[in-house]
């Protein structure tokens, strides 16, 4: 089984971290292929960058030369999953939905701890669209930019664990979801601080993707995610210069 795990930003070190987390969650015999888009922002922290990332991820997957069995979109609260589902005949799993759906097996209410406050509405909207918001206790911002997660690991751990603890104590969350692909590998530290289950979206998405492939299931094509109708697309891809 081969699973493409696609970073939504263009920072290779984040792709590497996501790929490592995905490989650690994968079963023996599953090949993880981490991909970085060829264009887009170095980090995705708003609607403009998210829509740009959606196009970049779709084009990156479309251009992949080898066969694959599933795709994981490794951006938290980002756009584009629906477009991938239209384009592909294999399962597509988004880490936002994978984390939240997994959390609901583990406790009555879950909270998401993410990066900047401006990303909170995007995550809330994606959870609502996916029908996963009813049991969300809160979406909390750590105040860190995506790239800050790499620049100062201890500061990142402190900020994320603090917000996770407040989610448990103040919001009555029983499960924590790590709300950024760049937070891969921090689950143990949050468990130590809070004592509750912590769900990493990348690991959850890989596990779900494997299960769908083994069950022989993929996206329904009869209506919402039917393949795009054949038509002329003007000036795409754009020519350099």
UniProtKB/TrEMBL annotation:
Cleaved signal peptide residues: none
What Gene3D superfamilies does its record include?
3.40.50.12500
Task: Write down the Pfam families for this protein, in alphabetical order.
Answer: Asp_Glu_race (PF01177)
As for family, the record states: Belongs to the HyuE racemase family.
- Report what the protein is called: Aspartate/glutamate racemase family protein
């Amino acid at each position: 089984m081969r699973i493409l795990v696609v970073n939504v930003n263009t920072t290779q070190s984040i792709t590497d971290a996501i790929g490592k987390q995905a490989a650690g969650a994968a079963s023996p015999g599953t090949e993880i292929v981490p991909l970085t888009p060829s264009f887009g922002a170095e980090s995705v922290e708003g609607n403009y960058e998210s829509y740009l990332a959606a196009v970049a991820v779709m084009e990156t997957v479309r251009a992949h030369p080898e066969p694959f069995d599933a795709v994981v979109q490794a951006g938290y609260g980002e756009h584009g999953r629906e477009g991938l589902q239209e384009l592909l005949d294999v399962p597509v799993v988004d880490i936002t939905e994978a984390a939240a759906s997994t959390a609901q097996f583990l406790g009555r209410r879950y909270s998401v701890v993410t990066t900047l406050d401006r990303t909170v509405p995007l995550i809330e909207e994606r959870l609502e669209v996916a029908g996963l918001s009813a049991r969300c206790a809160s979406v909390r911002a750590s105040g860190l930019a995506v790239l800050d997660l790499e620049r100062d690991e201890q500061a990142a751990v402190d900020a994320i664990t603090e917000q996770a603890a407040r989610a448990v104590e103040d919001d009555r969350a029983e499960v924590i979801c790590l709300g950024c692909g760049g937070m891969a590998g921090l689950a143990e530290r949050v468990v130590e601080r809070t004592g509750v289950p912590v769900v990493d979206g990348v690991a959850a998405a890989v596990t779900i993707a494997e299960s769908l492939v083994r069950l022989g299931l993929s996206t329904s094509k009869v209506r919402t995610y039917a393949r795009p109708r054949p038509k002329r697309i003007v000036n795409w891809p754009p020519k350099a210069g």
